Amino acid sequence: MAKGLYIHIPFCGSKCPYCDFFSIRPTDELIEKYTLSVCKALKNVPYEFDTVYFGGGTPSQLGADNICRILEEARVEAKAEITVECNPSDCCEENSFDFSALSKSGVNRISLGLQSGIDTERKALGRRAGVKEAEAAINRAKKAGIDNITLDLMLGVPGQTADTLKESVNFCVSSGAKHISAYILKTEEGTYYYKNRDKLNLPDEDACADLYLECCELIERSGMRQYEISNFAYPGFESRHNLKYWHCEEYLGIGPAAHSFIDGKRFYYPRDIDSFMNGCAPVNDGDGGDFEEYAMLALRLTEGLSDKKTRERYGFGIPKKIFDRAEKLTDIGLLNIDSGRIYLTKKGFLVSNSVITELLT
Ligand code: SF4
């Protein structure tokens, strides 16, 4: 069975003040060396892939020509979903990032880091480009024939209100996006946001919860359907690649900090670009794919955990003790049980970690 391929690009043009991801500012030399290292890591891989995802960091910093070089090394099926994450500021100018070259190489999905449809909010998030530039990037991708576009939105941005959120969602819908990912901003330790959280006018936890529920409703009113805690799509435009993670299917990750799950084994590359470029092998991370892990991932989805699918995969159904615990959580509106399926409600998604822990431990 074909697998998913994740290529990590650890480069960013500048550091966003809330982000603690591992990323560095690239030079031409580093880009060339990194591209060659990814190509080398892919060279003798025997698997076929039906989804490919270039994530980061900022993959558009690598340049379209290098993304095409990498794709040439992988065995990618003809009807594969191939996604590239892009930053609007890399792609908005005519003659900048070459979407046509990507399209010719089979790339058929672009994920654009919009974060907000309001310029002041984008600025507060440290984003260099404004909404006009994001619009230009979307139009350039579409003109090159890539119209499966997903936009990222952030909830809990300094100064964000229900009205500005509505404007952001309206921007996404009217831009023709087929998919939206909406994440609640977390202020990770060590970031500028964390150090200055008292001065930043950040919405508190209750306000973020309200923004999340409002966001779900606004997006669903457009005809998109929520299919995961943070993900919404028109029918047929769900991310096939990310569904592999949530369905506990196999994928190969290439690049520093990229994780893999193949033949029941988990392994990863250390979070160190030099060791990756020096050809260090991935590190063993033990066995994966047991029922607990499968259930934990399935419960992130609106389809939830199915007794039938569990039986098909493991030869046994959802244990009775989990149904018993679930019964108690239905009483307080955090989940539902229906036809042998346990699934979280929107209120449950807001506290998904606690609900899932309560169910499975
Ligand atoms: S948020 Fe994205 S673009 Fe900004 S620094 Fe982090 S990885 Fe880079």
Task: Itemize the secondary structure elements and their pairings.
Layout: E1 3-9, H1 28-43, E2 49-56, H2 64-73, E3 76-86, H3 88-91, H4 99-104, E4 109-115, H5 119-124, H6 131-143, E5 149-155, H7 162-174, E6 179-184, H8 192-195, H9 205-221, E7 225-228, E8 231-233, H10 240-246, E9 251-254, E10 259-262, E11 265-268, H11 273-277, E12 283-287, H12 291-298, E13 305-306, H13 307-314, H14 320-331, E14 335-338, E15 341-344, H15 346-350, H16 352-360
Parallel strand pairs: 1-2, 1-9, 2-3, 3-4, 4-5, 5-6
Antiparallel strand pairs: 6-8, 7-8, 10-11, 11-12, 13-15, 14-15
Helix pairs in contact: 1-2, 7-9, 14-16
This protein binds iron/sulfur cluster (SF4).
Iron/sulfur cluster binds next to loops.
Salient structural properties:
single chain; 361 residues; alpha/beta; pyruvate-formate lyase- activating enzyme; 2 domains; nine-stranded mixed β-sheet; three-stranded antiparallel β-sheet; 16 helices; 15 strands; 40% helix; 22% strand; binds iron/sulfur cluster
Task: Outline the structure in words.
With 361 residues, this protein is α/β, with parallel strands linked by helices. It has 2 domains: 3-244, pyruvate-formate lyase- activating enzyme (Alpha-Beta Horseshoe), CATH 3.80.30; 305-361, no CATH class. The protein is built from 16 helices and 15 strands. It has helices spanning 28-43, 64-73, 88-91, 99-104, 119-124, 131-143, 162-174, 192-195, 205-221, 240-246, 273-277, 291-298, 307-314, 320-331, 346-350, 352-360, and strands at residues 3-9, 49-56, 76-86, 109-115, 149-155, 179-184, 225-228, 231-233, 251-254, 259-262, 265-268, 283-287, 305-306, 335-338, 341-344. The chain has a 9-stranded mixed beta sheet with strand order 7-8-6-5-4-3-2-1-9, sandwiched between helices. Strands 10-11-12 form a 3-stranded antiparallel beta sheet, with no helix packed on it. Strands 13-15-14 form a 3-stranded antiparallel beta sheet. α1 runs parallel beside α2 (64-73), α7 (162-174) runs parallel beside α9 and α14 (320-331) runs antiparallel to α16. The chain is globular and about 60 Å long. The two termini are 32 Å apart. The structure holds iron/sulfur cluster.
